[in-house]
Amino acid sequence: MARCSLLPLPIVHYDGERELRAVLFAAACALSAVLVGPVHAASPEPLAVEVTNASEPVLCAEKDNVTINLASRDVRRLRIEAVHPAYIGSLQRDSFEADWTGCSAAGDPAPGPAQPPRRTTLYEDIELWVVGLTFPSFWRPATATVRIGERVEKGIHLLQVWMIRPMGGEEVLVLYPQDGYWRLRPLAPAGMAPTAFGSSFLVGPVEVEGRPIVKIKEVAFDPKSRSFTLQFERGGTASVRMAKTDQSRHTLEVAFDKGIDGRPFAALRSMYVTEFTNDVARIAVREKGAKGWREDGIMAFKRAAATDVWAGRVSPSRHNTSSPDMLFGAFSDTVEPAPGKK
């Protein structure tokens, strides 16, 4: 088969059908080079990770019972995204209220008197606002420190990242430094109030202490790059960068300084009671070598070796109706070079 040449086209005087075909072929090759760009080597095969389900059935809608663990000692980078559910444009009513129905079993959470937390503005500029909250009590000791520039804070139970918009501030990310839980959401679609948070996730060496947690020694935030640097109590670090935040998705790029062996490097935490009361109801995995995605109910799913994982809903729930779907992917065993280096 003839191959395109990327050399400049010569001026050709042709006579006959053969010469005409040659000129047209060369012109097509030149146009292809402009539109497609230079040819690069094929991308490496995507890395598959072990995905396992440790979920348990519950009746209480305010108790996280869904746990999807992601494990591979080879993973050094991954991408985590929050994406509006497919039905977001058809919502007529959203729901944010807590649902304490069925929360009567031993160990279930229960509503208590609302005690306002202590609120501290840790950073503010024209586009970004970082707030730290300290609650009257928390289920774990507050040993992790929070650093922004030269400012060091202790006793922070919740970090909130707000993005300033013409309609006011919108909270797009939260992190609980004392147990490692994150929540993420995109900016609200045009014409809608801020949407709900839903599923949580963990980043780092996951262990179980009553519930899955990640023990963080220190979290530092760089407002310029919109990046978090996590130091784990078990050793090692991770960077979590807010790569893209818009009205369709919120994307985080995660990089570990070393692989995490013997335990999950990330986990999804959420809630499922029924198809109509949940924060996540379905899961889809793209298994390595498969010709398509495999889909299942979140409680029926067992395990997979997958290069991509989606967890969300295809029909509205009465609980946190507008909360986003979550995607985990772009798993890699390589570390990107620092800017300006190859």
Provide a quick synopsis of the model.
The protein has 342 residues and is mainly β. The protein has one helix at residues 17-36, and strands spanning 49-53, 66-71, 77-83, 118-124, 128-134, 145-148, 151-154, 158-165, 168-176, 181-184, 200-203, 207-208, 212-213, 216-222, 227-232, 237-245, 249-256, 266-270, 272-274, 277-278, 282-287, 294-297, 303-312, 325-332.
Structure report:
- The protein is mainly beta and 342 residues long.
- It folds into two domains: 1-40, no CATH class; 49-110 and 181-332, no CATH class.
- It has a 20-stranded mixed beta sheet that branches. A two-stranded antiparallel ribbon has the order 12-13. The protein has a two-stranded antiparallel sheet with strand order 19-20.
- The chain has one helix at 17-36; strands spanning 49-53, 66-71, 77-83, 118-124, 128-134, 145-148, 151-154, 158-165, 168-176, 181-184, 200-203, 207-208, 212-213, 216-222, 227-232, 237-245, 249-256, 266-270, 272-274, 277-278, 282-287, 294-297, 303-312, 325-332.
Q: Gyration radius, to the nearest Å?
A: 24 Å
Shape: globular
Estimated share of beta-strand residues: 35-45%
Specify the number of helices.
1
Low-confidence stretches: 1-42, 338-342
What percent of the residues sit in helical stretches (DSSP H or I)? Answer: under 10%
What sequence of helices (H) and strands (E) makes up the elements? HEEEEEEEEEEEEEEEEEEEEEEEE
List the main descriptive attributes of the protein structure presented here.
20-stranded mixed β-sheet, single chain, two-stranded antiparallel ribbon, mainly beta, disordered N terminus, 342 residues, disordered C terminus
